[in-house]
Model the fold of this input.
Amino acid sequence: MSTQQILEKAKQWLVAPFDATTQEKVQKLIDNNDNNLTESFYKDMEFGTGGMRGIMGVGTNRINQYTLGRATQGLANYLHQTFPDKELKVAIAFDCRHNSKSLAKIVADVLTANNIRALLFEDLRTTPELSFAVRHLACDAGIVLTASHNPPEYNGYKVYWNDGGQIVPPHDKKIIEEVNSVNFDKINFKANENLLSIIGKEVDDAFNKASVANGTFNTPNRNKLKIVFTSLHGTSIMSVPKVLKMAGFKDVHIVKEQEKPDGDFPTVASPNPEEPAALKMATDLAEKIGADIVIGTDPDSDRLGIAVRNLENKLVLLNGNQTMAVMTDYLIKQWHEDGRLNGNQFVATTIVSTNLIEKIAQSYNVVTKVCLTGFKWIADLIREAEGEQEFIGGGEESFGYMVGDFIRDKDAVTATLLACEIAANAKNNNSTIYKELLNLYSKHGYYKEYLISLTKKGMDGAQQISQMMVDMRNSPLKNIDGSPVEFLFDYESSICTNLLTGEKTAIDLPKSNVLIYQTKDGTKVAARPSGTEPKIKFYFSVNLPLEKTEDATIVDKLLTQKIDRIIKEMQLN
Done:
């Protein structure tokens, strides 16, 4: 879009239906004529298959009352088309971010203006509780305002369907079509307060009770596990301490400096539990008091980071694949010991996650279903299997896990409880989570994963990301660290090509802009542009046998060196 086109687009925001405050802010952008004007208007913020996420501010490419109003008007239109004779209900939650509460009320206003009952949480709540509430309250849809672990200037908007999972085909594309057809002057902001219901404690109590029921397995001596927990200024403070207490974990130490919800996230550079720096206050406290386990959650409490003690008694942060492997093995084992496995169960993982999950499930004769990245696809697997197969648990490498099917999105509340349950059980057996992980490696192979995330901001960044994917498709790698590439999985074309024989087979998954290389020696390299951030992500997975757990350090070093060679080979360093 040319500079003149951007200017003309911005000028449309200087008149009604945009309010005086918005008009004033847009005029300032025009007067300054800097890059902020371009970034705010060079495109419309996309309502994608998972909703929207972006920087707050005025403009078509920003999160504000009008872009969220447009999204909600489109959703309202689609709900009326889909359920024409129904009294519609939509649950709404929001996290600790700036403007989340006021924007959530605006979203509720648009819904009630369109004759849809809005069930709005009284204050901030976790994303998993919103997913739970949709089904618990028999809603037709759900909305949560959150930008997960993004910087403070971001906010976002995610839509859930009546099964409690995020929207998937066919609803996602049809909702997008409706949203895109809404002009800003067609948004109905005139609220009908009679259709607004404020929800809170009743849903909290039901959610917490269900979390404890799904995340615990009668492990004794829970009060002997010393836990350090940090909410990283986010919403999990509303739920996690309560469910831990309800389950009998009494020796819980909360990082006080990070306990209060705060959209500025003042004690961390990023409220991302993937990053060791985000958990430093928690690990420092854990070292001070001799804690067994450290857990931190992101602002909307759907992802968690876990630090446990290694063989040298030092705290180490597990990655998402490691956490998922330990949790999946533990859950299946509990189902097995309870006599609940009958061949009709499954676990789930995603295409960019570790293959170790399949090895673990296979050892119990449990099916593993592999889907695209994102928990909405795991929720879709559950919905498709309802009444025929039972879902045990599942997750992906991005530090998220889902325990059972009572929630249809990643759930750091119940996963925190499960992590503590596993740690307490291990402690009863003179073991640790780390030792349990090494036992899995010894049994199934030592799998090591690594992620590189390259940020490419703005219009130029988006073009660079697009070109990187084009280059990798048109000129695929032939060898990776000396091992021939056997398979190229292109999820956008839905074709898997055997590069050694030329044979092509269809991929039976929805299309997605993801490429995965798989070599003869079992190495996996995936490339995927993020759907919510200006990033392209590269996922690496390598493996070697682990003959005995005492060799773990040596094998880990060999795998680290292998990953380093691959990164250098691909010129990603």
User: Anything to note?
Assistant: The longest strand covers residues 446-455. The longest helix spans residues 65-82. The chain has a mean pLDDT of 95. The radius of gyration is 24 Å.
